[in-house]
Amino acid sequence: MSENKIEIKDLRKAFGKKVVLDGVDVEVKKGESLVVIGGSGTGKSVLIKCIQGILTPDSGSIKIDDVDITKLSRKEAEESYAKMGMLFQGAALFDSLKVWENVAFGLIENKKMPRREAKMEAIRVLRQVGLAKDVADLAPSELSGGMQKRVGLARAIATRPEIIFFDEPTTGLDPIMSDVINDLIIESVKGIGATALTITHDMASARKIADKVAMLYKGKIVWTGTVKEMDKTRNPYVKQFINGCSDGPIKVEV
Which pLDDT score is estimated for 208? Predict the structure, then answer.
């Protein structure tokens, strides 16, 4: 058995003539937190969607626990997808459901947990992310952006997934709330022993939650290392990105 939870080799995905992933190699060890950094439009979201089975890659392999899910039928791959949780960029809560129903969605729909039991579990998980019991019966629209993000995190961890994806988890939040969310991500992931893959361009968030960082540029991983290594690297792409410089090999397409 490999010590990798996720192992991606030579992953390629294009939309017509636009090549988005151009031979991506990624490894994430069990219990590790990998943060993939890179600018907008570099293929970060497409990478996550391929792993989750939302998009079908053109070629390459995606192994979850040593099983290449690209070789399985949709039904066979469902077992791997059931191991995954996700915190979406805008929290992406269901407006028509109460907060607790959002958190318990996977428990009720996938794990067939009775509603009364699922509500109790949802309240427990909400407390875990710092939200009081009285929030459970509110509508998502009654919450602030930071609270909605916490509810999204509670939903992501409620089913105790083995792998959690975080899509720009601090987007739209002020620096203090961003730091609160980063702390909650660390506590939540470690608390359930999950493997985490985060995509972000928020370097404060990357530095805080990453065990390892990978930079994606023009469909390829151009650098991988620890946060300490990132701050010392001479890789021109990483240096330009983490320092937010307009001068360098990364050209902004206008």
Answer: 94
